[in-house]
Amino acid sequence: MDAKKAQRVAALYHLWREDLYFDEETRRELTGLAESPEEVFDRFYADLEFGTAGLRGVLGAGSNRMNVYVVRRVTQALSDTIKRCGPEACARGVVIAYDCRHFSDVFAEETARVLAANGIRSYVFDALRPTPELSFAVRKLNTMAGVMVTASHNPQEHNGYKVYWEDGSQVGAQKADEILRYMSERDSWRIDVPAPGSWESWRTLLGADMDESYMQAVEKTLVQPELIRERGHDLSIVYSPLHGTGNVPVRRMLAWVGFSQVHVVPEQELPDGSFPTVRVPNPEDPGAFAMALDLAKSREADIVLISDPDADRLGLAVRDAEGVYRGFTGNQIGILLMTYLIRQKRALGHLEEDAVVVKTVASTDLAEPIARQAGVEVRNVHVGFKFIGEQIMDMETTGRGHFLLGFEESLGYLAGTYARDKDAVGAAVLLSEAALYYKCVEKKSLWEVLQELHEQYGYYDDTQRSITLTGINGRQTMEEIMRIMRSSTLRSLAGYTIERVEDYKARISRDLPAGTQEEITLPEADVLRFSLQGGGFVMVRPSGTEPKIKFYYSLKSAGEDPRLRERVEEAFLAPVRHLLGE
Predict the structure, then answer these.
(1) Residues facing 493 on adjacent strands
(2) Does the annotation mark 466 as catalytic?
(3) Which of 147, 260, 320, 557 is most buried, judged by most C-beta within 10 A?
């Protein structure tokens, strides 16, 4: 063990066990770890890292865990950042929302208390609310910032703290660095907070009025609301919030616009931070659909919708013409939404000439040929929905382009500019509208629509694989994997020719056949992308929010090939297989 780290661990472990600032339960938990030096080391060898998405980690006592004291520390740094902007910024205040996870409500209240101690007003939702409504409320109330207490789709042991800035997007790199600097400069863990009964005048509760404003904004993204009002009863929908926050807003939104045949999975209806019926509360996990599919089969439902705990991600399964339920990837959902919006808005004369679709560099290349044929621009940005939000702001500021849709392969979509983050509530009603239109007007399911797109533009096998690498050793392993990948001399993968290598950390794009290179204009990021001749790519990046390294595959072929990804992956991972425990 590094001597400096060992000294840090020993000092912090003693402080957190002995200082009466830390509550009795925290001190008791840490005392119980005295015979587990590896666990103590993992809890204190570093502070929980604040990145561009905020904080996210395992619940528990320690500087490298999510707890009240870490929440106070990051909120003090956020307060320092806001105060530096002046008295007007403090008066504008901060919106706070929270989801169903363990201690989310406690962390939200602690956030408001620390803000009050710094003379900063807060607007706190009176119960669970989805992440996109937090983003909407920041813009609606013109606050200086927002805080969402959630760990999104992470396992039940986790919680998190996402920070938003005045435009409704998650904080950018510059503001994130400023918050991190204030956290790092603080030499004490003691953050004084006001006693109960002395600070509540600094807090305003948000409720039904904000909900209604949010739903009205979501409703404006629909293309054919009159079709839903007339025929909404003809679409049978099964929905599961996976024990999360989406239960109320998704059901209310679907009913609001006119969908009356909505069947909720009863075992997964009520909020429960333990998520007892799923391995992980992630709609990307096929296992999360099991109960919803059982209910759908019994009712012969047309579509199945599943949202994650904070209701910003949405999964989809569809009943095809033979009665088989087909699961969709985030890329496929994004393509369906994009195609539906383009075609229906054009038919109604509502598609702007300079319409723009924004997607991440990890999302399918199938978007380009579809959009190109329709005369719609596609912009590619870094992974993370805040970069899509930045593009919306750029269009509004410069007047160049009209935002049509933003999507990322990890089940995130936004149609409309009412928010600056992905929205499962908005996606649920828009997907339901699309399913209703194709069922009632074109007499086909969303699955048949997708197959027609593949037949016209080619089959794209779009998949992602995540490998968990925890602790300090995991972080070092990810760094070594990225180093090896960057030094790779690969020029082909299982028959695909690599045309371009894009290193977003070095911000260099190399054209392999031409032997030339050019600068990448996007900001620096630890991402390596290999573009394939004729369309498609493979890509690798460490996750910014989880202890995982992620591998992405977008592979174009003449038809469906079940072993295509397997062959490409085997060749791509060969140089680092020994580091992946395989």
Answers:
(1) 496
(2) no
(3) 147
